[in-house]
Structure formats: C-alpha cells, structure tokens
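hey m, so remember when u said the tokens were messed up on ur end? i reran from scratch. heres the input so u can diff it against urs
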Amino acid sequence: MAASQSRRFVAKPKFNAHPFAYHQEIDLEITTLTNLGSGLGRVPLPGAPEPGSEANAGWVIMVPFTLPGEKVRARVYRNYRNFSEADAVAILTPSPDRVEAPCPLFGRCGGCQYQHLAYAEQLAWKQRQVAELLRHMADWEFPVEPVIGSPRPYGYRSKITPHFGAPRERAGRTDGDFPIGFLRQGTRFDLVDVPRCLIATDGINERLPAVRAEVRAKASAGGYPRAATVLLREAGGQVTTDYDAVITEEIALERPLRLRFRAHDFFQNNPFILPAFATYVRSEAAASGARFLVDTYCGSGLFALSAASAFERVAGVEISETSVAFAKENAAANGIANALFLAGDAGGIFQDIDFTADETVVVIDPPRKGCDEGFLQQLFTFRPRSVVYVSCDPATQMRDLCHFKTAGYGLSRVQPFDLFPQTRHLECVITLSR
C-alpha cells in the first residue's frame, strides 16, 4: 500500500486522560490572557499541595473566549504534559469588560479572538502582554507605552484571503453548499463559511457576495482541481481580486505619499492607522540624529520614502527585485530624489551601502518569523547608531532583542500599535541605540 494511502488508516492518538477525563467539566476562575488570546486559569489537582504554595501554582487550563476575572465552566478536550485546553460551556460570573460580539461567527471563526472584550481593554491587555514578553523573553524591565489604537475597531482590514477545500472536500455537496472562509477556531483544516467579515472594509464586504458566487459557479463547472485561496484587496477606493493587479495606496503624511505595489505583495492592511504608524517610525528614526537611513525589508518603500525628507540620504534594501522596482518607481512618482533602492543579496545586505555607520539609523520590518541570524550578524557588523525595529509578532521580536542586548544596544522606547483590532495580533515598534 502506498504511503499516501496508508496514512488514511492510521488511528488517531488516544486521548491522554491525565489529569482530566475527556469532556470533564470544571469550574475555574480566569486570571489572565495568553499571548494567543485565550483565557488562562489554574485549578488544584487531587493529592497536590495547596495551590499558591511554592510546590504547586495550580494546573493550567486555557479556555478561549473567556476574560480575566470571570468564573467559567469549562469542558476539557485536550491534556498536555503541563496544561490542558478546554471549551467554555458557561460564563458563570462575567467580566464587567465583556461586551456582546457583533459577528454571528465569533467563537467559531478563528480570525478574531477579542470581539467579546471592550476595545479600551483590548489595548490595555496588549500593552501588558508586550511588557510581559519583554520581561520574560528578553529579560528587560522597561516601560511600555500605551498602545496606539486603530481609528476603526471594525471595518479596517483592506485585504482578506478566504479559502476553500479541494474537490474531495466539496464532494456530495450541492452547488453553493461548500464553505468559503477561514479556519474554524482550534482546528488546522476545518473551514467556517464566512459570507461577511466585520473587520474587513465596507468595499470588500460589498464585493464579497459576487466573488463567492463566481467561485461556486466555477467549482460546479469542474474548476479548481485543488484547494484554493481568493484574494480581495482594497486600495484607493477600488477592490481587486487579481493577485497581479498593480494598485495604489495614498497615505496622508506631511504631504500625501502615493505608493504602487502588486495586490499580492506585503503591505500593511490597516490604512486608517497607517499615517500615524509611518509618522512614528519616521520620528523615532529622525530622533537618533543620524544623517542617513537604511530601510531593510523595505518592500515598495513605505518607511524609506515616508522618512526621506528627514535625512540627507536614504537607502532601501529588499531581496525581492520586483518590490525594489516598485520602490524606485514610487520614489520617482513622489519626487523623492535622495532615496536609493537596492536588490540586496541575503548574504550581503549592507555590502553596497556606503553610509557611515555612526551616522546611520536602520529600520527593520521583518516577516512574522523575525530576523534570521545571518541578517543580525550583518547588522551588528555594520553597527549603526540606532535601530527602529518594527514587528508584527512581539514574541519573535523579543527573541531577537536578546541578540541586540549582547551586541551592546539598549532600549530607548517601546511603542505598540493596534493594527489588528479584535484579534490577538499587534505591531510593536522598538527603538534601540548603541
């Protein structure tokens, strides 16, 4: 039997019944939120020392969609070596910060974690989580600024990518019956049908029904031989579903900045907070007193071009040659003459930069996985005066901060931005100086 066939018949691992039976119900108090957005509480185990003693802090249970201060009844569905996961069966004592989630799919769709939490409290918890990550992962005690919130807590997201399953997953369903949407909460493959997404822009939601109808019609005609993803992206008041479409985003800075890029390229997906976000990065870079700026992972040039007027010269470095081509076009279209963009080799990011390191500030905005060791080695060899580190994942950012500390950099400012209301995600801008 072929390996691909035999895998179908491999039995699922048996449920680990320690310390709780499958679907055992437990009452507990939620004391905090994890950085994944789940509520966390502790319960005593039979025969264990009293909770709160040095020998027993209590067994950890994580319960999604619960809030600190709430007493809940939870049903255990998985035990790990040192914690359990459970679903909330009932909220026995609700938090005063609990609100009614406006989306009927909240709790099933895995896209949002915080619609049940008042927005001001979302910001407070995100600030606290950055401080805790900074303390526990980077071993740094440093004040974290209050999170700068999004002007729109809903209707802000300018790009969504709903997906649907392969033909075998659609087999037996009538036309229009298969789900087109996002992963179900707590699963890796099961999809929830999403006819409307409340965190997406109005323009995307207006276009979404027609796109879903087109997908279903093509699928019923035998199209889509495999699972697929649909792109909807709004820029300049227009919504496109073409991955290769060239679109334009205008950002209202000290003067409007118009940036062109392909619809599938990386670009920040909350245009409503983007002016404040880009202005802050510029001001932190300029506050270093450096004459030059290097924007690594520069994409189509957002930070380099928005900061260019504050420096004698700026350089953007990006591995993607197509992104570099857009960055050059954007510099010319916006009349910015002191910006240079380079398609840098991963092994020589700074080799074509002739700026004096002592007079240079570097902006880094890596992907969610953070900076790789090769990049950090090159950065520390170059030894810029200051670094403004932008990250969409504070956990990997804090991991990288350990290397900055070893290289002799200290913290100047930690400023989170909430580009992703109703979700556990955020952007964090950390300024470091040598």
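this time it looks ok to me. The first helix runs from residue 3 to 6. if urs says something different then somethings off w ur setup not the seq
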